Amino acid sequence: MFSRGKSRKSQSKPEAAAQNTAGATPLSVLAPNLRVVGNLESEGDLQIDGTVDGDVRTVKLTVGKSAVVNGSIYGEEIRIAGTVNGEITARTVILLDSAKVTGDINHDSLSIEAGAYVQGLCKRVDVEVLKPRDLKPVDPPAGKDQAS
Q1: Which end of the chain is less congested by CB atoms within 10 angstroms, N or C?
Q2: d(CA 99, CA 68)
Q3: Rounded distance, CA 11 to CA 134, Å?
Q4: Predicted local distance difference test score (pLDDT) of residue 48
Q5: d(CA 22, CA 41)
Q6: Partners of 111 in the beta sheet?
Q7: At residue 3, does pLDDT exceed 80?
Q8: What is the pLDDT of residues 114-132, one digit of tens each?
Q9: Per residue in 57-77, pLDDT tens?
Q10: Residue 61 near residue 76, CB atoms below 8 Å
Q11: Is the CB of residue 132 less than 8 Å from the CB of residue 58?
């Protein structure tokens, strides 16, 4: 109880840290000065502080205050502080007070802080989230002729 050796608390920290990093994928960050044109897919956590013109599919996404996403977002947990112009489909959606969302939100759980802007339909649905590697690529629309 009153030993001079290492305490239990200090011994458990390295073990806990090793367990947390063993199976986790690292956080990917898109800096404020970065603009991506195209779709993004990640099996881990993603933080966007720049601009994305395309769809985003990830497990956990944070859209920073300075970020703009022009496209659909699909994931497990989505936290938005910036601007999203497109549909959001996620199990958990959190809109912070600085969020500006123009588009429908399909969710299992939705949290909206006072001051957030939402223009679109919020629908509670049972969202089955797939990991990005399980998703099939989207085929181009049929019947569109390249020559016209």
Answers
A1: N
A2: 10
A3: 39
A4: 97
A5: 22
A6: 94
A7: no
A8: 999 999 999 998 877 554 4
A9: 999 999 999 999 999 999 999
A10: no
A11: yes
CA distances from 15 to 9, 51, 132 (A): 10, 38, 30
Q: 């999203």: which residue's tokens?
A: 84
Question: Looking at this protein, which amino acid is placed at residue 148?
Answer: S
Q: Which CA distances in Å does 53 have to 10, 27, 39?
A: 46, 20, 8
Beta-strand relationship, 117-119 and 73-80? unpaired
**CA 85, CA 142: separation in Å to the nearest integer?**
25
Listed in sequence order, the residues at least 6 apart from 108 whose beta carbon sits closer than 8 Å to its beta carbon are: 90, 91, 92, 124, 125, 126, 127
Look up residue 62 and give its amino acid: T
Structure tokens of 102? Answer: 């123009």
DSSP 147: T
Q: Which residues lie closer than 8 Å to 58 by C-beta, 6 or more apart?
A: 40, 41, 42, 43, 44, 45, 46, 74, 75, 132
Single-letter amino acid, residue 87: E
Token pair of 99 as six digits? 């969020």
Place of tokens 């959001």: 88
